[in-house]
Amino acid sequence: MYSAKSTGRRRVVYEEEMGARALERLRLEHDLRRAVEDPARGGFQLHYQPKLDLATGEITGIEALLRWRHHELGNVPPAEFVPVAEEMGLIVPLGEWVLREACRCAREWRELRPSSPPVVSVNLSGRQLRQEDLVQRVARILEEEDLPPNVLSLEITESLIVEHLLDKLRDLKSLGIGLEIDDFGTGYSNFSYLSRMPIDVLKIDRSFLGDLAENPEARKVVGGIVDLARQLSLLTIAEGIETTDQLDALRALGCELGQGYLFSRPVPAGEIPPLLAPDPGTGEPGPPPS
Q1: Taking the domains of the chain in order of start, what are their residue ranges?
Q2: What pLDDT shows up at residue 14?
Q3: Which residue among 96, 154, 184, 264 is least crowded, i.e. fewest CB within 10 A of its CB?
């Protein structure tokens, strides 16, 4: 009898927890739908993280990262709202807003450094990549924002790269934009497959950097990715660099580019121009914020 009562109580608690989670999910969906109707008013904004040449320290690129400040909940982590937006199909209009906003900022930053403008990269979701008119949408935004295509790059996670999307990637590449494979090393891409892809950069997943300086196996993996990229005439960028030991190890392995908290956290658009303006004393770009 005691066991039956105990089981019953557990069932009640479980059902209450499930009910609370369901209500939270419904609220998130409702608020997300309303916020996407007017992203800026709905609390969405972009933060930007510089990408640096590891040899010179120059900012060569900037990644646009979506943030959502909920009117009651505060900052909602992307890991919580992005998958929901993807499931609901809201990632398409939201992603288009992100692309347009990033292109607008890229145009402004290009004027600050016209001889070597930073390439602004935008993450592309699976649902966006499957849009039939994606190429036309990107081309239209570039034209409307008056942005040269070589100042834009799209990041696509390795897990999204499948055979039937190669033609679409080639069409995107024909616009003159850059293409990067994000989180590289976590999927199953091989040399033959990569050699047919119209990409420019392999982005080494942050999971390989944790103990890079001390772990020979981690260095072997990262070194293998760098060598693979070199054979394919691609650049490599490491994300999630947090220590000077990681930086030294990446330089020794030949990785060309990097981003991470060691250089700069993602910052609002207004904090980027001082980083791109020449330092009065040296003529070089200013240092990233700590």
Answers
A1: 1-37, 45-276
A2: 53
A3: 96
Domain 45-276 sits in CATH at: 3.20.20.450
Which residue type does 213 have? A
Phi, psi of 184 (to 5 degrees): -70, 140
Residue among 166, 24, 15, 38 at smallest CA distance from 84: 24
Nearest to 184 by CA among 130, 129, 240, 131: 240
- From residue 252, how far is each of 48, 203, 255 by CA, in Å? 27, 17, 8
Measured between alpha carbons, how far is 216 from 213 in angstroms, rounded to an integer? 8
Is the per-residue pLDDT at 285 higher than 70? no
Are 279 and 261 a contacting pair, CB within 8 Å?
no
The pLDDT confidence band at residue 283, using thresholds 50, 70 and 90, is very low
What's this model's pTM, rounded to 2 decimal places? 0.87
Give me the half-sphere count of Cα atoms (radius 13 Å) on the Cβ side of residue 103: 24
Q: Which of 140, 64, 139 is nearest to 95 (CA)?
A: 64
